[in-house]
Amino acid sequence: MKMNGSMYRDMVVSAACSLDNQKDVINNLNVFPVPDGDTGINMSLTMSGVRGDFVSFEGALGECAQKAANLMLRGARGNSGVILSLFFRGIAKAWANVEEAEDCREIVKGFSKGVSEAYKAVMNPTEGTILTVMRVMTETAAAKIEEAQWEDNVQGLFDLMLEAAKDALEKTPEQLPILKQAGVVDSGGCGFVAVIEGMKACLDGHPIPAAASETQQNGVADFRAFQTEDIRYAYCTECIVDKSARYAGENTTEDLHRFIMKLGDSVVYVDDSELIKLHVHTNDPGRVLTEALRYGVLETVKIENMKQQHSSLSGSQPVALSSQITEPEKEYGFVTVCMGQGMEDLFRDLAADQIVSGGQTMNPSTDEIVAAVQRTPAKTVFVLPNNKNIYMVSQQAAKIVNDRKVVVLNTTSVPEGVASMLAFNSEADWGTNVAAMETAIKHVTTLSVTYAVRDTEIGETVIKEGEILGLINGKIACSSSTQEDCVVSMIESISEASVVTVYYGEGVTASQAEAVTALLQKRYPEAEVMSLYGAQPVYSYIISIE
Q: Is residue 301 classed as helix, strand or coil in its secondary structure?
């Protein structure tokens, strides 16, 4: 059996559907119970582009592989999404100018290149992750391919690879202690197994379909009747919220309805005793999902770019976010990622050129970072991800932009982003500035107060859903029934501070913030302590200690 372009296309589409169908299972494998952009959602959104007009793409194997890789790279979200997109980019590189794979050797060659590309993106690869599952699967196939009878048995090859991937996944807890303590396998590796399952299902003649639409098309509309640019709100955003896991906050679900009404049009809002189902056309789907998370657990999420859909259906070229390019007019510019009106205002006051809405719960895509960089009128653009799960996406975006210099700083929190901007000197060259900003980042300790989204056991530590969590530099340091107790517990381990800034979030009153600020002032009597309303969701407090 030979693999041609249409076969590979259908296998990738089936893989994307398989991943989307299993995203909730993958999400639930996340070790840490903090409300973050979950692995399953990030990987599913990374592959979501191939479920659009790519399903009808025609071309040679190399052309199809390149098209799929480009769609995934631009849609990549989170570290796991970037790694997955680079795996498929490696396959595309290996199959460049290939009409069709003559035998299993060509297929394994592509997968081996995919593993190589994925590993290159991670500075210090850790065993027991998605990378391990990819590598072990491919190495097993490469060893088996030396047997002559396997040369043309593509179905047999994928049977072998799926078995090897599952076996590697089951062994991840033995390689990564935190997984063993939590009693789970690696979530990214699980997502990759779902991808291989989807590809194999297609080969077996039973491709995994996309979830059925809840509405049926009764007629055929003429999509050429209006222009793509006439679409005011680009993203059709839908989600179902399970209210049984109600989070902190005194707002009613009617407050959510009113909030959604302000963000776009075509709002459909259904609220029953256990679930909320909402639909809205908006330009900021991240804000929709972040707000919805305050009222429960997201059971399903669907985001579709209506401008791209219309362009496809009307036969015109899609309008890409990155097509809006501003010519450089100054030496330096800044793109920063954050959530919350107060945080956005703060970064604008610090002279950030572009704000990308994102962070916890909704990691921005590669294309969103690219678009923001290209709208920044500077020869050198500094990108501040302000989240460890957005750093790799930002790095990939930097590689795509070729008309200006892009420098990605490894800021893993908003306080680190603020410190780096304060250290910037417009009169210095970029190398001097990078050194100064990286030094400033190292002098920041970030404390965060949030809540547990699920019950979790890590070793002897038992965390219950809804419990208040305290994190120091992104790692769980304590849990408590009150936010104040978490803050007190965390600062006991930090003996000195010269400047302390409290960013308080949505749902926190000024008087509550003053009480926490007073606790910090008492702990650090010689320090300058201040508070700002960040309006960030999910995190009641983000505290910067320098």
A: strand
One domain for residues 26 and 127? yes
Element (H, E) at 229: none
Instruction: Note whether 188 and 260 are same-domain residues.
Output: no
Among the listed residues 220, 215, 169, the one whose alpha carbon sits nearest the alpha carbon of residue 190? 169
Helix axes 78-94, 130-144, angle to 10 degrees: 30
Distance CA 240, CA 24 (A): 13
- Residue 378 sits in a domain whose CATH number is 3.40.50.510
Tally of CB atoms within 10 A around 321: 19
Indicate if 437 and 526 belong to the same structural domain.
no
Q: In what order do the strands lie in the sheet with 235-242?
A: 264-271, 275-282, 235-242, 297-305
Question: Alpha-carbon torsion 248, 253, 258, 261, what sign?
Answer: positive
Do residues 132 and 172 lie in contact, with contact meaning Cβ atoms separated by under 8 Å?
yes
Q: How far apart are CA 249 and CA 262, in angstroms?
A: 20
Burial of 349 (0-12, 13-18, 19+ CB in 10 A): exposed
pTM of the model: 0.76
Domain with residue 291: its CATH number is 3.30.70
pLDDT along the chain (546 residues), means of 10: 90 95 86 69 90 89 94 88 93 93 89 94 86 96 76 87 96 89 88 96 92 40 42 75 62 79 78 76 82 81 64 42 70 94 92 87 86 93 94 93 93 96 92 95 95 74 84 90 93 92 91 94 94 90 96
* 298 residue type, one letter: L
| CA distances from residue 489 to 135, 448, 453, 492, 523 in whole angstroms, order as listed | 41, 12, 21, 6, 11
Contact 104, 152 (CB under 8 A): yes
Q: Measured between alpha carbons, how far is 450 from 465 in angstroms, rounded to an integer?
A: 11
What tokens were used for 255? Answer: 């407050």
Domain of 339 in residue numbering reads as: 322-442
Half-sphere exposure of 196 (CA within 13 A, CB side): 26
What is the CA angle 452-455-459, rounded to 5? 105
Q: SS3 for 251?
A: coil
Inter-residue contact 280 to 232 (CB < 8 Å): no
Q: Which residue in the block uniquely carries the two structure tokens 């304060």?
A: 422
Q: Reduced to 3 states, what is the DSSP secondary structure of residue 165? A: helix
352's tokens = 């950030």
Give, in order, the Cα–Cα distances in Å from 527 to each of 446, 523, 524: 16, 9, 5
* Structure tokens belonging to residue 27: 């999400």
Place of tokens 């050429």: 224
DSSP string, 513-543: HHHHHHHHHHH-TTSEEEEEE---SS-SEEE
Q: End-to-end alpha-carbon separation of the chain, Å?
A: 62
